[in-house]
Design goal:
The structure holds 2 protein chains of 2 kinds. By secondary structure, chain A is α+β, with helices and mostly antiparallel strands. In chain A, 26% of the residues lie in helices and 18% in strands. In chain B, helix 1 packs parallel to helix 3, helix 2 packs parallel to helix 4 and helix 2 packs parallel to helix 8. Classes of the chains: A alpha+beta, B mainly alpha.
């Protein structure tokens, strides 16, 4: 059939107008989608089924594409290691010499610290369990800084979990599906992280802007930050554990304080996901429920009852912190978490034992499922 | 309906489907976490190539739908707010479509300048929408790098235009 024979051949559609109408409809749909999106929230359902499905498909595909490139990178590293072995050996020897001095100092400080903790009855945070994963995609544009990792729901990862590299904090999990999770990096424009200056505990909010060095916002006081200050997570709000290394403060070209991220010191290939939910995880709820009521602070006169001296509350003796109770149900891995603010001594402290001259440090005993190295 | 030889009308999959798949594949491949000499690779917006070329080649009902789909996939790949890149691409497409009569017959450098303008429209729209959506100001330096990496992709758009602008007898 020739074009001329087509009964609709004579109909002249206003093509520009119809294209404009289609464009308008598409724009309306896009605006509606944008307004309904809430990727940065802590609600897992906000991530959406579509995103989860896309992540579940993209993670293995991208992982397969990245494999040969990773092999090439490993090969290059191997060749470089071969040719620079002598200089590397010299550098490592110097580093070992310095580290040996620090080791002696660290042992002495740990001993002192253990004694102080025992005397004060401090209850430190138990280690936080974690899993390791590999980044398979890396989005690095100005409007989105996210990474997809190849571990998901089956590894116990949940929305809000902090993610670290070998050097420092990378971001937090914003979406989880089977076999994949998406990390919102500290540099993303939607990222807000409560941090503090290690030197003086000054608080700030680390705000990403899509560039490599996020800003320090909401600083208060007179000169709270100095060049080179170490920045750590503050733990404020219970979103992240306290004391995770974030980076180093520098003055930006725009005159604002920014942070050179510690995680930028090496390529973020493998990451560790801390299975941290909030501060309720840091205490053993069952153990807290079994705590006896605290004794009265002052002796009271009782009517109709004879109080025995043995039942009297113990005097103000230093509590013993070596707890015979089982450790919290967490895997004792090595998350670099600083001690949290103090908590009252636990049940063991109420047993009124005299404090030994040098009490044992309060280390959590391994639970039956513990001892597993980061996967 | 079959016409003789080269007088066959152009099938949409040839000038819309294939470039769309190519742009998405290139975007996906560049998602690989790779650093060269400690530096991250830039992240160009490959989808700007068909967004510009489709508007220049001819008005179409399918092109906005394809841009919407492509933008949504980019958002899913990149983890950006869903709807951001469809909106940016569609606005750039709309600008080029409205200036189509001006673009007809222009030389390559002038077309390149128009392409750069379309990229600026898309990036500017992204800046605005991210600022509204996330209540944060995106880094202008990061935007500049992405803009530069996208503008240098114009030869691909030029090739697409050359190949399909005069390929359909109905539009001669």
């Amino acid at each position: 059939m020739a074009l001329r024979d087509n009964p609709l051949g004579e109909v002249k559609l206003p093509l520009v107008l119809s294209a404009a109408a289609a464009l308008l409809v598409a724009i309306v749909v896009a605006v509606a989608l944008l307004m309904s999106d809430r990727r940065e929230t802590f609600r897992s359902e906000a991530y959406g089924v579509t995103r989860k499905a896309a992540d579940a498909v993209a993670a293995p595909v991208s992982g397969a594409i990245a494999t040969p490139i990773r092999w090439v990178g490993m090969g290059v590293d191997g060749v470089r290691g071969y040719f620079f072995a002598v200089s590397e050996n010299r550098r490592l020897k110097a580093e070992l010499k310095t580290a040996s001095q620090w080791r002696v100092a660290a042992i002495a400080l740990r001993d002192t610290n253990d004694r102080y903790k025992a005397l004060l009855g401090l209850k430190t945070d138990p280690p936080i369990p974690m899993v390791a994963a590999r980044a398979v995609t890396d989005s690095r544009g100005p409007f989105a800084n996210t990474r997809l990792i190849n571990a998901g729901k089956e590894s116990g990862i949940a929305v809000g979990n902090p993610v670290m590299s070998e050097n420092g904090l990378v971001g937090r999990v914003i979406g989880v599906t089977d076999g994949a999770s998406r990390i919102l990096l500290l540099t993303d424009v939607a990222s807000r992280t409560p941090v503090m200056v290690d030197r003086n505990n000054a608080r700030a909010i680390l705000t990403g802007d899509g560039g490599p060095n996020p800003r320090l916002d909401y600083l208060r006081g007179k000169a709270p930050v100095a060049d080179g200050d170490q920045i750590l997570t503050s733990g404020d709000g219970g979103v992240l554990p306290r004391g995770l290394p974030v980076g180093r403060a520098v003055k930006g070209l725009d005159g604002r304080w920014r942070v050179i991220l510690a995680s930028d010191a090496a390529p973020v290939d493998f990451v560790r996901i801390l299975l941290f939910q909030d501060f309720r995880q840091l205490v053993d709820a069952k153990q807290l429920d079994q705590l006896p009521l605290p004794p009265p602070a002052t002796p009271t006169t009782s009517v109709g009852m004879v109080s025995t001296p043995a039942a009297a509350p113990p005097p103000m003796t230093p509590p013993v912190t070596a707890s015979p109770t089982p450790a919290p149900a967490v895997k004792p891995t090595t998350a670099p978490v600083k001690p949290a603010p103090t908590k009252p001594a636990d049940a063991a402290a109420t047993q009124a034992k005299p404090a030994p001259p040098k009490p044992a440090p309060a280390k959590p005993a391994p639970s039956p499922d513990a001892g597993e190295a980061p996967r | 309906m079959s016409l003789v030889g080269g007088a066959r009308p152009l099938a949409p999959w040839r000038w819309i489907g294939v470039p769309m798949v190519q742009a998405l594949a290139a975007s996906f491949v560049l998602l690989i976490p790779l650093r060269i000499f400690g530096l991250q690779l830039p992240e160009p917006v490959f989808a700007m190539v068909p967004a510009f070329a489709w508007a220049v080649i001819r008005p179409s009902i399918l092109a906005p739908a394809a841009l919407l789909a492509m933008g949504l996939l980019l958002d899913l790949f990149w983890g950006s707010p869903v709807g951001l890149w469809p909106l940016c691409l569609l606005l750039a497409y709309g600008v080029v479509l409205s200036a189509r009569s001006v673009l007809a017959g222009q030389s390559r450098p002038v077309m390149w300048a128009w392409y750069a303008l379309a990229c600026c429209v898309a990036e500017g729209a992204g800046f605005l929408f991210v600022r509204i959506d996330s209540q944060g100001t995106p880094s202008l330096v990061g935007m500049g790098w992405q803009l530069l990496a996208t503008i240098v992709l114009y030869p691909f758009a030029d090739r697409l235009i050359d190949r399909f602008e005069d390929a359909d007898v109905r539009f001669r």
